[in-house]
Amino acid sequence: MGGLLGRAVVYKFDPIDFNGTTFELDETSVMVMGSTEFLRQNLPIAASYFPKALTFDAASARLPDMFHMSRGYYVFSERARTVIEHWAPNQVEFIPVACTAKPKIASVLNFDSAYYFINVLGRAQRLQWREMEARKFRPQDDGIERFGLSQDFHKWKLRERVLGEPLIWHDAWWRDGNREYRGHVEVLIEDVLWRELDANFPDQLHPLRAGEH
């Protein structure tokens, strides 16, 4: 295993735009029922659970290169895919989706050549649970105490990245005796990749730096 690579600077990955901001999707543009079970288990979502097409009913600006279809389901343009595959190869799966709209709406959206849902494949255990507040979940029958992240991401603590670990990832579960800690719902992104995306696609990502204060 390689050495540590300096002070951890990490962001929550969160595109600014979502359905209902600068664009609106029709009612068919939804995930297949059952997709949340993959998220709950910290597994990539099977490609068959993503819609094959997104239909846009309205638009007030060009379609961003990174956006939420709905909260937590991310869509990337071909331009954004190229950046990710250069900087973080094999850390993200790209699942093609057709984007359609009536001609007048399409002219506003100015579609890229292709769009993709993303599955973040990277996994790492970098949250420092012993050093930060955690939210206790409701007890279950197995007797294991389970904890999740507090809402205040400024108070999260992450260790430094080790050589070879992903630049974009879901945190792996961590077990400490009878306690299990789960911070996998969030997508986390290393500073170098966040800045590269922000430079190529300005004002498309919230600057949500984890553990800043």
General description of the model:
It contains four helices and 15 strands. By secondary structure, it is an alpha+beta fold. A hairpin with a 2-residue loop joins strand 12 and strand 13 (179-182). Helix 2 packs antiparallel against helix 4. The radius of gyration is 18 Å and the shape is globular. The two termini are 30 Å apart.
SSE diagram, text form:
Layout lengths: L9 E3 L10 E3 L9 H6 L12 E7 L6 E5 L2 E5 H10 L4 E10 L1 H7 L5 E6 L2 E2 L9 E3 L8 E5 L18 E4 L2 E3 L2 E4 L4 E4 H10 L7 E3 L3
Parallel strand pairs: 3-6, 8-11, 10-13
Antiparallel strand pairs: 1-14, 1-15, 2-3, 4-5, 5-7, 6-7, 9-10, 11-14, 12-13
Helix pairs in contact: 2-4
What are the salient characteristics of this protein?
6-stranded mixed β-sheet, alpha+beta, 5-stranded mixed β-sheet, 213 residues, single chain
* Euclidean distance between termini CA atoms: 30 Å
Enumerate how many helices there are, as a single number: 4
Average pLDDT, all residues = 93
Low-confidence segments, given as residue ranges, are 1-6
Helix/strand-derived category reads alpha+beta
Largest sheet entry = 6 strands, mixed
Within the largest sheet, what's the order of strands?
2-3-6-7-5-4
- Percent strand equals 25-35%
What is the gyration radius calculated from CA atoms?
Answer: 18 Å
Number of strands: 15
Shape: globular
Order of helices and strands: EEHEEEHEHEEEEEEEEHE
- Estimate the helix proportion, in percent: 10-25%
